[in-house]
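Chain X:
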Amino acid sequence: MRAAVVGAKGGMGGWLLRHLAALGHEVAAVDTRTDPLEQLSGFDLVVVSVPISATPGVIRVVAPKMRRSAVLAEVASLKEDSHGALATVSGFGLTTLCLHPMFGPSTDSLSGSVVAVVPVVDAEGEAGLARSLFPGADIVTLGASRHDRCMAVVLSLPYAVNLALSRVIGGEDLKLASRMAGSTFAVQYTLAQSVSGESPTLTRDLLSCNASLAPLLKAFEDSLGDVVWASGDDARFSALHTEIVGALCQDPSFSGAKERRQRAYMAVAGA
């Protein structure tokens, strides 16, 4: 199969180019800003790997240049807008794939990795194509709205919280803080550093392109106020703490959280 990756200069685009080549496909990098788009008619698969906010526009640009029955895939981290664009261009006779690999370009094995599939036309057929492109990965099928709500929880909100935390502690004596830190700060600080070091374009899009984020941010702000308010009274704080633990302990992994934090701390300290 001949495959083209639009956005191969980016981290994930470069990973996809190498991954598809390793699967035995003939691959090429295409830049819609400089390369003739007519060449896209010669590919069996075109994968769009560009910033979230740019993805719908690139889909609309490349789709008319592709041959009928070819596969057009995109891998943006948010799906509401890109899914809509794919649904529109599927009328061109293309097979469309709305994918979200839940891992980054440092991944060297798909074992244990998750790839989300948001069905556009044929849920079963699109999931099967995803399995062939990401052999060994766990394929999770879900709708665009549910996907983006989940991403607000696992990506957008953590990014917002860690950026805000980084801004607050950035004015403190971080050398002293790191020297005095136990596991809580060390692990949290490493996470804040890594989030702050991500691409500003990716981070901005995760915050500005996800409509599900706003209500979660409001809930976070309210909860922060509640925690501070409750800390002034033993009974209030005990009730709030019980409520929080009661929600989290529904996840069986809750009981091992302290041990995992300690292992993460040892990994951070060893670095």
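Chain Y:
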Amino acid sequence: MYDVPEFLTRDHYEALVIGSGFGGAVAVCRLAQAGVDVAIVERGRRWPAGSFPRDLTRLDDGWLWACNHGLYDAMPLNDILAVRAAGYGGGSLVYANVAVRSPQAVFDGWPAPYSRAHLEEHYDLAAHMLDVAPVPQDRELPPKSRLMAEAADRLGHRDGFFHPNLAVTFADRGPGQTNRFGVPQRGCTYCGQCDIGCNVGAKNSARCIYRPMCPVR
């Protein structure tokens, strides 16, 4: 018999958040911290470390939402194909963890209240929450990173090549160790597979950071 989650049996909530990616996770976290009776609804499954698909010869085996509710939902639009994640943690499960702050030039032409200076404190908070850190250079980088650096050299753009700060756990954590929110996480192995789901458990996703902070159904 299927066990109906307790929150589905209730008739009333003060707030209902749809989706558990960065937008939904941050919203539900702050609402719960403010004492609001809130629930979160997510269509996708939970993807613990080690469960993300890797066999590209079997796109029906965990890759596509259209096939057994897999990780990626492809949505054809007029001129583009939009691909989004379906899972507990939303897009934070498959983004590349890059934490680059937009330069002021990006905001030129925007309304006056929106500027780099205006966003600085919010950048700081997000960086703190996600444990954003520079990529340690004391280990050998993946071959793809070395090849990119070599290509930049050959093209005369070495000055523009850099390793961005990442929302990744680089600490040397072994099995059974947890982050500051009590969620099991291991240290990055530099496999370079951040954007297809981290099977190591080093990605600082919404499910590892924001959701554990608040008792939400």
